[in-house]
Each structure stands twice: as C-alpha cells, then as structure tokens.
From TrEMBL:
One GO cellular component term: plasma membrane
Protein name: Major facilitator superfamily (MFS) profile domain-containing protein
Matching SUPFAM superfamilies: MFS general substrate transporter
Superkingdom of the source species: Bacteria
Record keyword Transmembrane present: yes
Length: 486
C-alpha cells in the first residue's frame, strides 16, 4: 500500500512539474513572438527621427518598413514548413539569433543603406521565429482545454503587441533616441534564447530527403515576396491600376498558380494541399486576412487621426490605445478559453466579428474636432472586446486541421494570412483615404476636415471587410466538438 501511495504521489509531482515546464515554455514562446510583433509598430513612431538623423528622403524612408515586410511576409510559409522538416525548436532559436543580431546592426547603422539592409535581415529572423510558434504551442498542449488557454495567450501577443509598440516607440524615441527601439531587442533576445535552450523540448522534423520540394519552396517564396513588394511599393506609390502594379501583380499570380500546380503533382509537396480541405482551416485563414485588413483602419489610420487631427504626440497616441490593449489582454488571457470551452470556437467568433465591425462603423462617425472620451474611446473599446474574443478562436480554428507533422506549416499559414491581410488592408485603406482627402480638398473643404473625411471612409470600408469575414464565418465554418474536461 505504501508503494502504491508513493508511486501515485510521484506521478502527481511529475505531472505537476511537466505542466509547469510547458507553461513556462509558453511564456518563452510568447516573449519571442511579442518581440517580433512589437517591432512591427515600434519603428513607425520613430520614422521622423530616423529620417532626420540618416538623411532619408520621404520616398526612401518607406524602405525602413518595406525591407522588413518583404522578407517577413515572403518567408513565413517556407519557415513554417522547414520547421516541420528540420526542427521547430531549431527554427525558433535560429530565427531569434538572426533577429537579435540584425537588431544590433539596425541600432548601430551609420547610413540609411545599412539600416535598410539590416531591416531585411531582421525580417528574415522575424519570419523564422514567429512562423513556428503556434505550431509549437499546439504540440506542447495537445489537450483541447489547455490548448485553448495557451492560444489565448498567443492571441493577446499577436494582436495587442501592435498597440503596445506605439507606446513603447513613443517612450524610447522621446526619452532616449530611435537607436533604442532596436537595441532594446538585444537583451530580450539573449535572455529569451538562453531560457528557450533550457525549456523548449528538443524535436526532430520528418527530414529533408532527395524528393524534397525545393521548386515549390522557390515558387511560393518568390510569389509572396513579389506580392508583398507590389503591395507596399508600386501599389502604394503609383496606384493599383498603374501599369507597373498590374504587371507585378500578374507575375505574382503566375508564380502562385505554378506553385499550386507543383504541389498538386509533387511526390513530397512543400505544402500538402490537403490542409485546405478543412472548411475551418480555410475559412479561418480567409476570415483572419479580411479582419486584419479592416482592423488596420484603427491601428494605423486611427493613429494618424489622433496625431494629425487631434494633435496628439507619439506618447499620447500610445497611451490613447492603452485601454484597448488592456481589454484585449483581459479577454484573451482570462476569458477566451472559458468561452471556447463553453460555447465552441465558431459560436464565440461570430459575435466578436460583429463587435469589430460595429467599432469600425462607429469610428467612421468621428467628428471634427473629435473628443477622445466620447468619440475615440468607445469604438476602440468595442473593437478591443471583439478582437479579444475573435483572434484566439481564429487561431484555434486555423490549427484545428493540423497534424503533428504539419503543425509548423499551419502556423506559418496563419502568420502569412495575417501579414498579407495587414499589408493589403493598409495599402488599400490608405490609398482610398488619401484619394477621398484630395477630392474634399479640391472641393474647397479645409485641410483638417478633408483629412477626417478620408479617415472616415477608410474606417467604413474596414467595417465592410469585417462584415464579409462575418458572412464567410456563417457560411463556411462548422462547430468543433466541445473540449474535453481535463
């Protein structure tokens, strides 16, 4: 009897230690992901200071952001799949190292050319790190209830990091200098890497053989990189109907079609097309792309409204979005798992999308001049609630069809649709907003009113994109079985 009791106690202690280890590993993964997400917006606040210090022209300044986006968006899918083939832990650690070294180079860059080159390398490291995080989470937490809670933490990092970046960028740029928006990554990256080496379980991928689909890898990477370049450069600068934009968009489509044809016939495809047969996986990724595209109306054009219309500085702008971040964090970390467990992912997602669309529609009514407490805070809080419940459920649905062998691919696909949705959404909404502003100015409307009119149109179109996402959710998604009690 004593031996039985002792073995039971030992088993309980071992299970508790394993649980602590897995949740600590989740914190490490989320810190690495948070550093990558934060970098996406922290740089935007510092762009004027970077331009003044390194002598960028207005047009060349965009490459501080574009160089990162092209590498990051173009390599996410490939990095996720390579994590499956080689090692997700190895991919995460390698990406963390590349990102940290590139951050050092960015912070020390004495010329604009070196800064742009270092930003490209930083994008490579960011893609390698973030592409496999969600795949590692679902393998660390196979139980549905714990997995839902862990994905809630991931959802908070992936969505709230953007608004935290605005605040961090304002503080670092104003108190220290723009160099520190990059240098701050170095101690975070080193500590995260050291802890990850000790805590993340070693894994071996399925392996790279003679029949590995290198042609498919080249086609999808070329298609994504060219597509992101088309969105952030000729489309944004020359317009969507410019000959150069149409030519590059056509080339992107040709590469994508060639990639699909290759995957359908390859013996060992880089991206098995069976992953798209799941209605929930395909539907969740489509919904995510549309929702992120609409959301960027708040996170980026909303920033411009606060600064150019209400006269906020960088620090005030970051503080203005802080309540939204708190709401997203509270719902993602504390309540999303309970809601998904009780009602199912699809049932939780749909009201969340309604709230996001309603927040954007309400934002489209901001007056000139607006008041933060009555005109800005209510719609942003409404969106915060919607985002806090929607994104963990989207991640759960998007990973629902992944096997252990292709979890990295599914994770990379989630991040790719988020990145492409953000890039397309920002480019489209910014273009339409600027066009509307020019039309109002030409009609004799004063500058501030014309700016506001442009932002209002962008917010309204963003709401329409989320409504389309809602329709897809209603038609395509299916209820998942309720998570078991653990």
């Amino acid at each position: 009897m004593q031996r039985t009791i002792g073995s039971t106690a030992g088993g309980t202690e071992s299970a508790a230690a394993d649980r602590r280890s897995r949740w600590t590993a989740l914190i490490v993964l989320c810190i690495g992901m948070f550093m990558i997400v934060l970098d996406g917006t922290v740089v935007n606040v510092a762009l004027p200071a970077i331009q003044s210090d390194l002598g960028f022209t207005q047009s060349s300044l965009a490459w501080v952001v574009n160089a990162y986006l092209i590498a990051f968006g173009g390599l996410l899918l490939l990095a996720g799949r390579l994590g499956d083939l080689l090692s997700r832990r190895g991919m995460f650690l390698s990406g963390l190292g590349v990102f940290t070294v590139a951050s050092l180079l960015c912070g020390l860059a004495p010329t604009k050319e070196l800064l742009v080159a270092a930003r490209f390398v930083q994008g490579v490291g960011g893609a390698m790190t973030s592409a496999v995080v969600l795949g590692m989470i679902v393998t660390l937490f196979p139980g549905q209830r714990e997995q839902a809670k862990a994905i809630g933490a991931y959802g908070f990092v992936a969505t709230a990091g953007a608004s935290v970046g605005l605040l961090a960028g304002g503080v670092l740029t104003q108190v220290l200098s723009w160099h520190w928006i990059f240098m701050i990554n170095i101690p975070i990256g080193l500590i995260t890497g050291f802890v990850a080496l000790r805590l993340l379980p070693a894994d071996r991928g399925v392996g790279v053989g003679r029949d590995t689909d290198f042609l498919g890898a080249a086609l999808i990477t070329g298609s994504l990189m060219l597509g992101v370049y088309t969105i952030v450069t000729p489309a944004a600068e020359l317009g969507w109907t410019a000959p150069q934009t149409l030519l590059l968009a056509g080339a992107t489509l040709v590469l994508l079609i060639a990639f699909v044809a290759r995957e359908a016939t390859a013996r060992n495809p880089l991206v098995p097309l069976r992953i798209f047969r799941s209605r929930n996986v395909s539907g969740a990724n489509a919904i995510q792309a549309l929702t992120v595209a609409g959301m960027f109306g708040m996170f980026f054009l909303g920033v411009l409204y606060l600064q150019q219309v209400l006269g906020y500085d960088a620090l005030q702008t970051g503080l203005a979005f802080l309540p939204t971040t708190v709401v997203i964090g509270t719902l993602s970390l504390r309540y999303s798992e309970r809601l998904i467990t009780q009602f199912g992912a699809r049932t939780v997602l749909l009201p969340g999308l309604v709230l996001i669309a309603a927040g954007l529609a309400l934002f489209a009514r901001v007056p000139v001049p607006g008041n933060y407490l009555t005109d800005v805070l209510p719609p942003t809080l409404l969106m915060g609630v919607g985002i806090g419940v929607s994104f963990p459920t989207l991640a759960a649905l998007a990973m629902s069809g992944a096997t252990e062998d292709d979890a990295g691919l599914a994770s990379g696909l989630v991040n790719t649709t988020m990145e492409v949705g953000a890039a397309v959404g920002l480019a489209v909404l910014a273009t339409l907003s600027a066009t509307r502003t020019r039309e109002l100015a030409a009609a004799g409307v004063n500058a501030v009113t014309a700016l506001t009119g442009g932002y209002q149109l962008a917010f309204l179109i963003g709401a329409a994109l989320v409504v389309v996402a809602l329709v897809i959710g209603l038609v395509v998604l299916r209820n998942e079985p309720k998570p078991e009690t653990e």
